[in-house]
Amino acid sequence: MKLTLIDISSIGTIIEKSKMKPVAVFYGDFNILNSFFEKTISFNKEVRTVIYPDSSLVFLMVKLFKGIFSKRIVSTDLIYDTLNYANNNRLKMYFFGDNLETLEAVKRKLEKDYQQIIVTGFQNGYDYETNKVVNEINISKPDIVLIGLGAIRQEKWLFENAERINCGTLITAGGFFRYFGNGKFRAPKIFRIFYLEWLFKLALEFKRVAERYFYIAPKFVLRFIKMRNEIDIGKFDENSLF
Fold first, then answer.
1. How distant, in Å, are the alpha carbons of 210, 218, 221 from that of 206?
2. Cβ atoms within 10 Å, residue 229
3. pTM
4. Tens of pLDDT along 135-154?
């Protein structure tokens, strides 16, 4: 497995060079990486893929067991940076995921704060036909597709369908649409500075995230330690991707 350290300049390069053949960009938090370890998600080697480390626990393991000290990447911040990049460059975007109510809120937010983004489509993530979604993307040719189908489902969908999509940068967004459109609270900055977002989420949404932090996270730690020599981590290199 390869994890790539990226930032908004890397995303800009990917967007500019992925117009003819898509690149799938995945956030790799401990839940997603566990699924790769367990082969719940299967790699499609035909899809050009960038997986970047995400979440405090992943970065802690990278530091402790790979000896790599880099600026932490947070998927939410990176997607906000991507929206700003798209707005500044009048790029086309397609939004796929979540429910109609959330997508309407996303639409209002874009119309208010990101007026230079050209929206080519919105698609409900709970009621869709894959062939229709792929066709819409191919016809409208967005520069960026944000896919917020939720962890595991969005990665599977991408690996199964990316080869059929003939343009664009495909970015997994998890629950970002709810943060962006509905104003779902992120952890206060002080929690983020000290890598304590998980504690904030645990306090607010104990039932929803308890299994993630008390079962999946420890399992990830053990797997990372066991498989650390099989994990390659490096800076973004456009020549190796393109």
1. 5, 17, 21
2. 8
3. 0.93
4. 999 999 999 999 999 999 99
